[in-house]
Specification:
Shape: elongated
Structural class: alpha+beta
Number of strands: 6
Largest sheet: 6 strands, mixed
Order of helices and strands: HHEHEEEEEH
């Protein structure tokens, strides 16, 4: 009986380091999560062809995508499975353009002369917040919610001067497929 007890203790001591290391986070996990959840184009400003004289000024017709709006919402509470969980149901997104203006040309480092086109959107997200718990007894709470998110889709238009030939050449150069 004594040797069985000693083998149990020896096995427990041998497995102790592996049991304690289960909760540790490897150093590469944070980098992988950043690559997965941070989109490169979120912080980049697009560079578009110049605005040509004699043509109507471009306007902000491209509203932010539903994916962009949902990513801009505050994160949900993670909760504990079966004890407290939150969900968003019946999502409806309304997008309104607030600002659509073009600044005069100025010099931008690493770009050159360009005009900043401001496109600001107000996005209202209507949804039902569902809070559920199944322990110790099933409970479901459904509340209508509204959250407003402001998104800026600013971009730059190159400025090459008042010469229409130069404007046309730059437009062809930037829109030509290679």
């Amino acid at each position: 009986m004594f040797w069985v007890n000693r083998k149990v203790w020896a096995t427990a001591l041998a497995l102790l380091p592996t049991l304690l290391a289960v909760g540790c986070i490897q150093p590469w996990v944070a980098d992988r999560m950043q690559e997965r959840y941070q989109f490169n184009n979120d912080t980049r400003t697009p560079l578009l062809p110049p605005i040509r004289d004699g043509y109507p000024e471009p306007n902000c017709e491209d509203a932010p995508s539903d994916h962009q709006v949902l990513r801009a919402l505050p994160k949900q509470v993670r909760g504990v499975p079966y004890v407290y969980e939150e969900f968003r149901d019946d999502i409806v997104i309304r997008k309104d353009r607030l600002v659509d203006k073009i600044d005069p040309p100025r010099f931008f480092p690493l770009v050159g002369w360009a005009q900043l086109h401001h496109c600001h959107w107000e996005c209202a997200v209507y949804y039902d917040e569902l809070i559920q718990s199944t322990m110790p007894f099933p409970t479901y709470i459904r509340k209508p919610r509204v959250q407003v998110v402001y998104i800026d889709l600013d971009h730059l238009h190159l400025h090459v001067g008042p010469n229409p030939d130069t404007q046309r050449e730059m437009l062809l150069e930037m829109t030509r497929f290679k």
